[in-house]
Write the structure tokens for this entry.
Amino acid sequence: MPVVPPSRRPKPSAALPQDRGLSHELMQQIQDNQGDPDFMTSLGRGLAVMSVFSQHPREVTMSQISSETGISRAAVRRVLHTLQKLGYVGEQGRGFVLLPRVLGLGGAYVASSSMTAAAQPVLDALRDDLHESCSLGVLDGDDVLYIARAETVRIMSIGLRAGSRLPCYCTSMGRVLLAALPRDTLEGYLERTPLRPRTERTITRMDEFLETLDKVRREGVALVDQELEIGLRSIAVPVLRRSGEVVGALNIGTQAGRISLGTMQTRILPRLRESAQQLGQLLG
């Protein structure tokens, strides 16, 4: 499925921040739904404010939230005040943090998701067999969203857990999910998403990136070598239902200095594919 490289990128709206992220996506969706009389803009802005916390390991300030969402400081203050009164955020230092009550929202998804429930035993077995951390991710907006994880040791400075989000273009799971998209959907993603270098190894040339996606599509595997973070290698394969629909991606991440690229392909890839097939059969 050849994809035509975008000839030019649209200029971001002045009302929105230029950096991509979940909060940006939500604000764009809010703008797109302004004509819907049943759409609650205030609720949408509240969710956009909450999404900013997922991108920061520590407290966030009112100014940061306003900058990342494009919402005025006055409106951000009202949202935070409401969330604080309801017990979802609290003040810490010079900013705000999420409180444990938000776990009820995410926990409801984990408890109700058949994919998450089916995946965890498969991930645990894969981790115990290979002694490597592994994850299951799905496409959520323009990011890969981690919905299940079995970890041995922490190998990334940013840390990963269920609920973590990473950019698709420089991650193995993200490339697997992008390669499965219909042509028009992929072209839309490429129009919106600049291929910014996360390390000196990150693929940022559009022609090279499209060739990489073609290879992932042909071979059914994505291998990313230190493009997201120096010292991290990861390999991912698609999780398919029996119908052939790609519903997620399964990956293993490891330290580059400990496991070679050849070993990842000869020892890890076969076991990874077995686990993905097992999970796909469980999903039906």
Q: What stands out?
A: The radius of gyration is 20 Å. The chain is about 45% helix and 20% strand. Residues 154 and 160 are 8 Å apart (CA to CA). The longest helix spans residues 261-283.
